[in-house]
Amino acid sequence: MKPFTLLIKPASADCNLNCSYCFYLEKKSVYPESRIHRMSDAVLEKMISSYLQTKQPQYSFGWQGGEPTLMGIEFFKKAVELQQKYGHPGTVVGNGLQTNAVLIDDDMAAHFAKYNYLLGVSLDGPPEIHDLYRKNHAGAGSHAEVMKAIEVLKKHKVEFNILVLVSRSNVGKAKEVYKYLLENEFLFHQYIPCVEFDSSGKPLEWSITGREWGEFMCDIFDSWHASDTRKVSIRLFDSILWYLVEGQRNICHLGRNCCQYFVVEYNGDVYPCDFFVDPKLKLGNIMENSWEELQDSVKYKEFGALKSKWNSECEKCPCFELCSADCLKHRLPQSQNNPRTISCLCEGWKMFYTHSMKKFKKLAEQIKKDRAAQGQQTGR
């Protein structure tokens, strides 16, 4: 089998917050039979046992939502017990969890620390930015609760990244956001463009334009490049450097196909991507289908191949080597699902790569020199 990772939605789209821009909240409509969605022990055990029976260089479990911490600490303890039960000698297992962090307490943080979970905590900037869209069900902002939970994570030495969704709330404020993160000693960042469409393909009010995305990331790059290249890790920048140094694409939207992972919903249903949890794209169910069957299915292969059905103009672009025509999410919804549509963020990607690529290449060359020097010192 080709290697793959799991993105798991144990509480489906259920969430303790009610963020305006959340693309996954609407997925509740896929499972209208219940108001509350929770993964059963049977589905959890089948998912873990069957995955660990496949041959992988490492086994990656990404717990997402909705809000996965709604499952409670006992669920995650059970998950680790099952990983230990079904893992064979030498098995490398990684657990990641994407969260709004509001429900994290000492017990949960202690568990995450003990078993080396890597967390992604959503934080869009200072309170006046974060609280514009990231509210609870009573309409109150969540910033104070998130920062309180982060202190708990720090106390227990849990590793975490900060996930910044770049939306109408913070676009044009890149330097302010970056400065705020550093002031709070957050050194691992991910910046994600907020682009959501209505049923007619029109961008929703919190979405940003391609130009705004480009300007934001150019400002982030300049702030980072000025003095923080060896101190601050930014996932996109790390991935670009990894490609320039190793020749490998390790982030899905930079890749040439969409067959890197499976999404597992609370009831065991499997989909090719969490942006495309749609009954028409359901691949099967882990209670009924093997991972081999799911990976070999025509539907999975056809979906994966859509990524490479880009517009012919893309191949003429000097940025294409890295952008790979961008994520399907930014190509399909605006165009009645035509994969040859140019990404709505194209202008921004061109702006960013044109602005930064020479400096990225210099950094990559320095990394290669440093490695060579280190190899000489160790006699390798």
- Strand line-up across the major sheet: 7-6-5-4-3-2-1-8-9-10
CATH fold name of the domain at 5-157 and 255-307 = TIM Barrel
Give the strand content. Answer: 5-15%
Q: Which residue ranges are poorly predicted, with pLDDT under 50 across at least 5 consecutive positions? A: none
Which structural traits does this protein have?
380 residues, alpha/beta, ten-stranded mixed beta sheet, TIM Barrel
Kindly describe this structure.
The structure is a single chain. It is built from twelve helices and ten strands. The chain has a ten-stranded mixed β-sheet with strand order 7-6-5-4-3-2-1-8-9-10. The radius of gyration is 21 Å and the shape is globular. Helix content is 38%, strand content 12%. It has helices at 41-52, 73-86, 106-114, 127-133, 143-155, 174-183, 210-227, 235-246, 291-296, 298-306, 320-323, 346-377; strands at 5-8, 59-63, 93-99, 118-122, 159-166, 188-193, 233-234, 261-264, 269-271, 284-285. It has a domain at 5-157 and 255-307: Aldolase class I (TIM Barrel, Alpha-Beta Barrel). It has 380 residues and is of the alpha/beta class. The longest helix is centred in the last third of the chain and has 32 residues, at 346-377. Strand 8 (261-264) and strand 9 form a beta hairpin. Helix 7 runs parallel beside helix 12 (346-377) and helix 8 crosses helix 12.
